[in-house]
Amino acid sequence: SSPPLQEIISGESEEESNGVNLMEFSDEILLHILSYVPCTDLVLNVRRTCRKFATLCLDKSLTHTVLLQKDYKVNKDKVKQLMRDIGKEIYQLNMAGCYWLPSSTIDHVTRCKNLVKLNLSGCHVTSLRLSKMLSTLQHLRSLAIDVNPGFDASQLSSECKATLSRVSELKQTLYTPSYGVVPCCTSLEKLLLYFEILDRSREGFMLSGQLMVGESNVPHYQNLRVFYARLAPGYVNQEVVRLYLAVLSDRTPENLHAFLISAPGSFAETGATKNLLDSMARNVRLDALQLPKAWINGSGLLQHLKFNNPFYFSFSRCTLSGGHLIQRVINGGKDLKSLTSLNLSGCIHCLAPESLFRKAEDDIDSSILESLVVSCCNLRHLNLSAAHHHSSESIGNHLCQLLSRLKHLLSLALPVCSITDVAANVEKPPTASNLVPQTFGRKVRIGIQTYPRNLADQANQKIESSVFWALMGSLRFLETLEIIGSSFSSAMPRNEPAIRNSLPPCVRAQSVGDSEVAAISQLTYLQSLTLAQLPNILTGSGLINIGLQCQHLRTLSLANLGMMGKVVYMSALMDMLKHCKCLRDLRLEQPYFCAGAQFFQALSHCSSLQRLCIVSRSGTLQSDAVMSFMANCLEVIMCHMFMGESLTVCKNLQQSIVRSFQADRPALNVIIFPLLHEDLTEVIRDVPMRHLDEITLFKSRVAEEPPNLWW
């Protein structure tokens, strides 16, 4: 562990005895070190320690951009003092997701007269406060805000509208049907829209996008280069986005180079959207594309769209065949070195020549994947999850072998059934664990061999020459890995009751277990790991290897591993957690999970942990163990537990945590609630969007949106 800050500043560490003093380093080195310290600490604490730091902490390289978005210890008073001390020096301010700060905090942003970029997504901002603030920010060019119920554009002053007229980048999250500030932004080049409108209000009234009809102005898209819209489930979100698109369909901006719409479920094409796509095919050349599946399926659209130097494609959940993918997108093997991110999640036929008579479980055509790998050799983010990608027995053509050529990959998502060795899967008779039904019924007692607990013995059990082991060895710089069962669905989907039954895993996935997990430990730079529906986990021994070897791991999500009636990997998980010193986010989804004293004692070793989410049907918890854990882990600001306990037990524990720790942890967000309770969806709607989107809800996040979409 690193020495305390005071020790670093004074230089009184072990190194001093060897003649090394931190204060003797050059200013350049010290500035680099200080860049890792939160700005609030630099300005309010570190600069007061000595004259040298008093000067360095106010260096332009440290005050130009202020990031508060995950500074969970910041409060209103600290923001006020920070703005007073360095407000005029701040050009970029990111307060995204600071849901705990009162709306009056925004008033202090007016001190930042030179702001060029401002992110207030997830902050409480009223129309009047927004107007007052923006009236003073004449240099602003980039803005991110939420539009909540009660927003009234008529309350925006003329000075505010003048500022908005110069804004070229706008990110707007909508919680109510509205154009927000879009009509005021007449110079827009980049527009990002997040639709989070629920179909019903808290009072139970049905909402409608028709509330927007009659609003005085319409969007100005003539200079638009990037249009991005992400829709949460719900009819109203679809209704509202169509109103935004209506203007685009009348006249497509000539400079449009990125057009992206992420819509779950069915989002039907209309005459207006068809006109828009036809106009795009005639008039623009795109660099990034994502469309709802209904707009692509069965149409010849991709054949007519023109691309320049594409860097992002998403065909998530489309029935696009591999033949069409190669012919229409990659132009029969055209050089696509510019493509850095590709999302084929749920695209079940994307590695097959055609989809007409093909079953989803049929073997893939390795030549299609090979063409993809050769043409898109610079891919950094690739998502192939939520599909059955079964390799044939052809030597050298396994999916893992072909993917190992993508040496630049930073993030990868694969279905569990795609990583199994074909020969091993065919030749080996099913193990005892494979014969156990994946249900919640009575537990079956079976005899199983004892699995080794260290990496060397694991290798003897399952040869290191397996295709997945070799893939992990070749992707040395991978930072994010997701291995998700093709039929896995979380017990806690968005805006719906908890799912009570899960589908069985793919037959090809039955042999994937501890050895494959151990192979992941080769990824030295791994920061985020998701494992879901790995049926052959017998002890979880591979998790210990990951804990020991992957010292940069920050995010861990485990779901439905091994037998469903018992948490077979609990002992290994507790051993693993003792080594995860950098772990910040932990999500566990497993029936019958026992969150007791031993588990929380092991979890207390994760000194950097900030967010914990446990989803467990019939799961149990020990209230005193949770309280002790919260007292020991001072960085934890989010505790979400959806278990099998009674509503009374859950409410009492939640109140105890809030009462004991809220004062010292301003960002504390606690939800303890029965998973199968009928009011779960009402509870979920109050979760801050940052936590809901990043950890509470399970989803594949690899190539979910273009890289660097927003700062």
Tags for this model:
two-stranded parallel sheet, Leucine-rich repeat, LRR (right-handed beta-alpha superhelix), 711 residues, 22 strands, alpha/beta, 20-stranded parallel β-sheet
Helix-strand blueprint:
Elements: H1 5-10, H2 27-34, H3 39-44, H4 51-56, H5 60-63, E1 65-67, H6 76-86, E2 92-94, E3 117-119, H7 127-134, E4 142-147, H8 158-166, E5 169-174, E6 190-195, E7 226-231, H9 235-250, E8 258-262, H10 271-283, E9 285-290, H11 293-296, H12 301-304, E10 306-314, H13 322-329, E11 341-343, H14 366-375, E12 381-383, H15 399-403, E13 411-415, H16 422-427, H17 455-461, H18 467-474, E14 480-484, H19 514-519, E15 528-532, H20 541-549, E16 555-559, H21 570-577, E17 585-589, E18 594-595, H22 597-603, E19 611-615, E20 620-621, H23 623-632, E21 638-643, H24 647-661, E22 669-674, H25 680-684, H26 689-696
Parallel strand pairs: 1-2, 2-3, 3-4, 4-5, 5-6, 6-7, 7-8, 8-9, 9-10, 10-11, 11-12, 12-13, 13-14, 14-15, 15-16, 16-17, 17-19, 18-20, 19-21, 21-22
